[in-house]
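Lecture notes, part 5. Sequence design as translation. It can be helpful to think of inverse folding as translation between two languages: the language of shapes and the language of residues. The source text, in C-alpha cells, appears below.
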C-alpha cells in the first residue's frame, strides 16, 4: 500500500460481517433469498450499511433476532477521489487547475455487475414473505434496479433443496450434523 492511498482505509466494520443467526445450522434456515443487481452500478459503503440496517430492522421486528441470517455479499474496495477546487474570488491564482489532479480519498464504493448478488438472507420457510419485504425495503437504499430472487439452494450451501431432501434422514449416514 503506498503512503498516498492511506486515507482510503476508513472502513465500516459492520459491512464485512455476517449478522444474527450465523451459527445456526443449515436445517434451521433452509430458505435463501437474494437481492440481485439488474444494472452496472457503483454502491457506496454508506448505502450498503443503510440497506443492511433497513433489512436487519424489519427482519428483527418480524422474525426475532435469531430468526434469520443475513450476509452482505458486496465489499467496497474501490476508492473514490475528489480534486477539490476553490470557488472564491482570485481562486485562479491559488490553484493549479488540472495539474497534479490526483485527488484526495472521498469514500469507498463497490462496483457491481449485472446479476451480482448484493445481499442474501436465509430464514425459515414460514418467514418467506417477511424476507421478501425486508429486501424490498433495503432495495430503496441502493441506486439502480435490483431484483429479489428466491434461490433453490439449501440455505447458503451449494446444494439444491431437492437433492438434500432425502439426505437428511437419520438412516442416511452420508450427512452428519456439524457439532463443534
Amino acid at each position: 500500500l503506498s503512503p498516498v492511498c492511506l486515507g482510503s482505509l476508513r472502513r465500516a466494520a459492520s459491512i464485512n460481517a455476517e449478522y444474527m443467526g450465523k451459527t445456526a445450522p443449515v436445517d434451521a434456515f433452509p430458505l435463501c433469498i437474494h437481492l440481485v443487481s439488474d444494472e452496472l452500478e457503483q454502491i457506496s459503503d454508506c448505502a450498503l450499511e443503510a440497506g443492511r440496517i433497513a433489512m436487519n430492522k424489519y427482519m428483527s421486528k418480524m422474525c426475532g433476532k435469531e430468526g434469520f441470517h443475513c450476509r452482505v455479499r458486496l465489499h467496497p474496495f474501490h476508492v473514490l477521489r475528489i480534486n477539490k477546487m476553490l470557488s472564491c474570488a482570485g481562486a485562479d491564482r491559488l490553484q493549479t487547475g488540472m495539474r497534479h489532479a490526483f485527488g484526495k480519498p472521498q469514500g469507498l464504493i463497490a462496483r457491481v455487475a449485472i446479476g451480482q448478488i448484493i445481499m442474501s438472507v436465509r430464514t425459515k420457510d414460514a418467514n418467506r414473505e417477511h424476507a421478501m419485504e425486508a429486501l424490498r425495503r433495503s432495495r430503496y437504499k441502493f441506486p439502480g434496479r435490483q431484483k429479489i430472487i428466491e434461490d433453490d439452494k439449501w440455505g447458503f450451501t451449494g446444494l439444491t433443496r431437492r437433492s438434500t431432501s432425502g439426505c437428511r434422514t437419520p438412516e442416511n449416514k452420508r450427512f452428519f450434523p456439524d457439532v463443534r
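The translated text above is only one of many valid answers, since several sequences can fold into similar shapes. The mean pLDDT is 81.
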